[in-house]
Amino acid sequence: xxxxxxxxxxxxxxxxxxxxxxxxxxxxxxxxxxxxxxxxxxxxxxxxxxxxxxxxxxxxxxxxxxxxxxxxxxxxxxxxxxxxxxxxxxxxxxxxxxxxxxxxxxxxxxxxxxxxxxxxxxxxxxxxxxxxxxxxxxxxxxxxxxxxxxxxxxxxxxxxxxxxxxxxxxxxxxxxxxxxxxxxxxxxxxxxxxxxxxxxxxxxxxxxxxxxxxxxxxxxxxxxxxxxxxxxxxxxxxxxxxxxxxxxxxxxxxxxxxxxxxxxxxxxxxxxxxxxxxxxxxxxxxxxxxxxxxxxxxxxxxxxxxxxxxxxxxxxxxxxxxxxxxxxxxxxxxxxxxxxxxxxxxxxxxxxxxxxxxxxxxxxxxxxxxxxxx
Length: 374
Known about the structure:
By secondary structure, the chain is α/β, with parallel strands linked by helices. The chain folds into 2 domains: 2-177 and 322-373, Medium-chain alcohol dehydrogenases, catalytic domain (Quinone Oxidoreductase, Chain A, domain 1), CATH 3.90.180; 190-316, NAD(P)-binding Rossmann-like Domain (Rossmann fold). Helices cover 30% and strands 27% of the residues. The chain has helices at residues 17-20, 49-55, 103-106, 114-122, 168-188, 204-215, 228-236, 250-257, 272-280, 304-309, 324-336, 355-363, and strands at residues 2-8, 23-30, 37-46, 65-66, 70-78, 90-93, 132-134, 137-141, 151-155, 159-162, 196-200, 220-225, 241-244, 262-267, 282-290, 313-316, 346-350, 369-373. The strands form 3 sheets. Strands 3, 5, 6, 9, 10, 17 and 18 form a 7-stranded mixed β-sheet that branches. Strands 13-12-11-14-15-16 form a 6-stranded parallel β-sheet, with helices on both faces. Strand 7 and strand 8 (137-141) form a beta hairpin. Helix 5 crosses helix 6 (204-215) and helix 5 crosses helix 11. It is globular and about 60 Å long. The two termini are 17 Å apart. The mean pLDDT is 97.
């Protein structure tokens, strides 16, 4: 079938993107679902820094590639072997497909699925297939989804069915921002009631972590960012303290305000400086968690002796250490109860042909989560 899709032809475009136009809106041929696959009508797809990091080349991916990985939609067609969904079901797309049989999947860690990681790196679906073509030439899939499009053919292993009463523009955010940000708090760090928390980096994932810390019962939530408008949003979402990361002596200020540092610090900016700040504001015996995705050649260093002498813990978190089929319904239930006001992360709706303009706003820090709606 013929669809419209936002295609990245090569990485490394410079801002403003409304002028360099890294994403072209092209007519693309989409094949129907093969075995274990599903055709989904894309209803909403969020603009995330993970997309931006592919556009600017920080996260190398094969091109040309149809972008978009945080999305929700409606099932249109089922491939052979899919018998637990039906046409009309509402689904959220998950950017790491899980095979269910490799060692990480067997251990309950589907975010680390080995065949899923290989497929994502190669720009294919979990089966190894590419279902997208332009002018007869294959296009790569972005994280098994490619949701900046009218329709997407994806692996059944990339989908979680949801209740149809959740608006799909809000549902899209659960596929990345919420799973990653909230999951880092409750799954990776296991923040307990009364703990003190700091969140460094206040994009969609960082602000979702602020929400997650509140839902987990943190007694103090310190938000650290570079723009005053996002610091204000963090305060509205439950942060008890806010600090501008560019302020002179900000590390000492935070440590003084928290009596030597916080129990848990989360780095969600994907920058080494942010990670260094998060580490330095973590108390003795505390835990520093990073879910940011810096360029692969960027390195973080720390005093080796501190790990022993201060019993420090440094942890990585991918997809919020989530089991999506378990956690996504839980987070949606918290949202419905008013415990995770995810809708407040939405800062705009776009049409597909406005996507380059949307990435300019994201790059400039003027948006939290914009959603392309069909």
